[in-house]
Design brief:
Layout: E1 2-4, E2 12-14, E3 25-26, E4 35-36, H1 43-50, E5 54-60, H2 65-77, E6 81-87, E7 92-97, H3 101-109, E8 115-120
Antiparallel strand pairs: 1-2, 3-4, 5-7, 5-8, 6-7
InterPro entries: Copper_transport_ATOX1-like, HMA_dom, HMA_dom_sf
Protein name: HMA domain-containing protein
GO molecular function: copper chaperone activity; metal ion binding
Length: 122
């Protein structure tokens, strides 16, 4: 960024667009073309690629770090789960991925923890 002008009121900001990089990004697991330059990826494409199909939130009875650890272990091994968050103080488990609600619910119940409620966020 270059700043020009004589006083604070005269300041003009001119942004210099950087040259595109000479390297390419390999995207083998997406439906977009295999090789894309960094600057050809738009925000819409990135959000469509990165956004999971479903998001669920569960209220799970967890009283200690062992309880949250058990839920973390089963969710980290479950195929189709892209990301999850186990919050012990609020006893909430948020799961995102390409997996049906019933499968996630069964996976959490497999730990022996009581699932009080669950909702589909999207």
């Amino acid at each position: 960024m270059r700043i020009t002008g004589k006083s604070r009121n005269d300041v003009v900001h001119s942004f210099i667009k950087p040259d595109p990089p000479s390297f390419l990004i390999r995207c083998p697991t997406t439906t977009i073309p295999s090789y894309l330059s960094v600057y050809s990826l738009t925000r819409e494409v990135m959000s469509a690629v990165a956004k999971p199909a479903h998001s669920y939130e569960f209220d799970v009875k967890m009283t200690c770090s062992g309880c949250s650890g058990a839920v973390t272990r089963v969710l980290s091994k479950k195929e189709g789960v892209q990301s999850f968050k186990v919050d012990l103080p609020t006893q909430k488990v948020t799961v995102e991925g390409d997996i049906p609600y019933e499968d996630v619910l069964a996976t959490i119940k497999k730990t022996g923890k009581e699932v009080r409620s669950g909702v589909t966020v999207y």
